[in-house]
Amino acid sequence: MKTTIKNGRVIDPAQNIDAVMDVRIVSGRIEQIGKNLESGADEQVIDATGLVVTPGLVDIHVHLRDPGYEYKEDIVSGTRAAAAGGFTSVACMPNTNPCNDNKAITRYIIQKAQLEGFANVFPICSITKGQKGDSLVEMGDLKLAGCVGFSDDGLNVEDGAMLRHAMEYAHGFAMPIIAHSEDESIKNGGVMNEGALSTELGLSGNPWVSEAASVARDIMLAELTGAHLHVCHISSRRTVELVRAAKQRGVHVTCEVTPHHFTLTEQAVRGYDVNAKVGPPLRTAEDVAAMKEGLRDGTIDAIATDHAPHHIDDKNMEFSYAAYGMIGLETALPLALRLVNEGILSLQEVIALLSYKAAKALGIPRGTLAIGAAADVAILNLEHTWEATRQNIKSRSFNTPFENLSMKGKAVMTLRDGKVMHDEV
Ligand code: NCD
Ligand code: ZN
Question: Does any domain span residue 391?
């Protein structure tokens, strides 16, 4: 099977490519990139005139809810949403039921994704069995089964000695510890950012310190053990400062930010919008500015969605009781592209943060159109304006605070291994 994507503006930050060219795919791999490539009569030709051709995007933080919570999302619906968002690879968190803390679940996820999925799925397994915080998983086994990192995401590893040992083992296996860093005692059940607004709304507050204090500890443990610490979904100015300083002194730390944390402030919670309830909470304008600065100066390694689908029955209740999380796979690209319009990042930088830089942060071998690489490609229409509605979103859940917000930019075609996974050209 041969395909040529013609006349698109090809942007591949990993190779420093940005030019109008053709991309030729043979047997699921990138065969050639160049101007005016010849294509044989038997070849599929995709006309990308006026469109941008990039590596398939890579999202290193999603919740596919499979096994166990398929009423919220499953591997098929979640990867379909990924493809619709331009993503060809996702790394999925282990807070399923049962938890992905053993190779049987890991194999199930990989196999189902291969057989029925619309994107590559790289499982992340838990750090502790059942994410209960009291005994470590079989790390070597899980690496062999195909996991790309360890995370108790959704929960903090409260016991510092446990996390230290996890880092020592993970380091031995050259695997990252992916930390959901929120000190539970400081968080103290707070359901939104702590400040004047939480007082005004009468909601319990979760201060920035819950995150920053935990990240400070985690960075010190990474420094002690030499392990690679990847900090999930950072939200506060102080956290960016901590990661920046740690990088400067050579600690092996990477981090990610979600589109919602660089787009929205706590003001989105006004009106008690349960779709703006997320962990860590949306914070202040000052924090949002710090996220943008962290993206600009390279402190932040990746944009990751933390796609966290929830059924309306998990959300439709008093704010304090509603589940934490929002979907993100299909709105990430247009929200990230706003950073280009704001003059904070170049288009190449946004694509890099959503592809090879993200993949690199977890050591996933994806995110480039290099010759010989898997033909995972996104074709983007940067001018297309649209709104997220229940009808046009592929995710099984529709918990988003971005409903009816005008979005600009859309993946109009997504190919994985050279095969079309999403097509709205
Ligand atoms: C996530 C979920 O729903 O699993 N929720 C969230 O608010 N982010 C867990 C997580 O990523 O921490
Ligand atoms: Zn998390």
Answer: no
**Residue 386 in contact with ligand 1 by CB distance below 6 A:** no
Mutate which of 153, 156, 192, 275 to test ligand 1's pocket (most atoms within 8 Å of Cβ)?
153
Output the tens digit of pLDDT for each of the chain's 425 residues.
899 999 999 999 999 999 999 999 999 999 999 999 988 888 999 999 999 999 999 999 999 999 999 999 999 999 999 999 999 999 999 999 999 999 999 999 999 999 999 999 999 999 999 999 999 999 999 999 999 999 999 999 999 999 999 999 999 999 999 999 999 999 999 999 999 999 999 999 999 999 999 999 999 999 999 999 999 999 999 999 999 999 999 999 999 999 999 999 999 999 999 999 999 999 999 999 999 999 999 999 999 999 999 999 999 999 999 999 999 999 999 999 999 999 999 999 999 999 999 999 999 999 999 999 999 999 999 999 999 999 999 999 999 999 989 999 999 999 999 999 999 97
What is the model's pTM? 0.98
**Residue to mutate, 62, 63, 97, ligand 1, most ligand atoms under 8 Å from C-beta:** 63
- As a whole number of angstroms, the distance between CA 245 and CA 297 comes to 12
Measured from the CB, is residue 63 less than 6 Å from ligand 1?
yes
Return the ligand number nearest the Cα of 179.
2
Index of the ligand 1 atom closest to the CA of residue 310: 3
Residue 401 maps to a domain: no
Kindly provide the b/e burial profile for residues 93-132, where b requires at least 16 CB atoms within 10 angstroms of the residue's own CB: bbbbeebbbbbebbebbbebbeeebbbbbbbbbbbbebbe
Q: What's the CATH number where 154 sits?
A: 3.20.20.140
Domain that holds residue 352: 59-362
Rounded Cα distance, 254 and 272, in Å: 33
Could you tell which of 64, 69, 95 is best to mutate to test the pocket of ligand 1, judged by most ligand atoms within 8 Å of the CB? 95
Q: Is 299 among the domain residues? A: yes
Ligand 1 in reach of 31 Cβ (< 6 A): no
Strands (E), 280-376: 302-303
Question: Tokens 């995370």, residue?
Answer: 151
The partner residues of 186 in beta bridges, in order of sequence, read none
User: Does residue 77 sit in helix, strand or coil?
Assistant: helix
Instruction: Give yes or no for residue 68 CB within 6 A of ligand 1.
Output: no
**Ion ligand 2 neighbours, Cβ < 5 Å:** 153, 180, 232
- The residue contributing the CA closest to ligand 1 atom 12 is 154
Q: How far is the CA of 334 from the centre of ligand 2 (A)?
A: 22
How many domains would you assign to the chain?
Answer: 1
- Structural domain contains residue 378: no
Name the β-bridge partners of 175. Answer: none
